Amino acid sequence: MQTITRNTKETKIKASLEIYGNGVGKIDTKIGFFDHMLEAFSKHSWIDLCIDCIGDTHIDYHHSIEDCGIVLGQLLKEGIYPVSGIERFGNGAVVMDEACVECDIDICNRAFLVFDMSCYGDFRGKVGDFDIELVEEFFKAVAANAGFCVHIYLKRGKNLHHIIEATFKAFALALRRALSPNLRAGIPSTKGVL
To answer: Averaged over 10-22, what is the pLDDT?
Structure first.
């Protein structure tokens, strides 16, 4: 199990992660909707995840959400690299009522994010008091700090809650598949290192 403590002037975060866990999430970021999304991620990735975050939410949620993404990415990187004996690539599409979101992941130690919600139009607005543009900020932070290439795109959807929840679940499913043990894979790269 990996553990990280990250303290800045904006947030204080303590987090731990077990990659091959049971999908148990103990999340307290003081942002209810975000807690719900991280619990869904934990459940569907089968990663045990504990995050306790105290942030400057009186300003807005940006710092807490981005910093939780940084910490999650760092924990994943610490637990995965050097890559060996896993599938490496994973994808998954998750439906939630009218919404369908697909995620593709390459655990390659090269950070990149494609976040395409363009079929929704201008991907702005709120779910309760949660600014939906922060979803992209979270995944940018995860991808950059984990060293993942991640493509997330909305195939269809109208309800913002459904779209965002399908996004977190699709990421979880794709990651779970990419992390699937495969001893025959050795180091899954023609370069011989990831």
So the answer is: 98
* 194 occurs within a structural domain: no
Report the SS3 class of residue 87: coil
Host domain of residue 49: 2-185
pLDDT tens profile 104-142: 999 999 999 999 999 888 888 999 999 999 999 999 999
User: Within a domain: residue 191?
Assistant: no
Q: Residue 23 and residue 153: Cα distance in Å, rounded? A: 24
Cα–Cα distance measured from residue 170 to residue 28, given in angstroms and rounded to the nearest whole number = 22
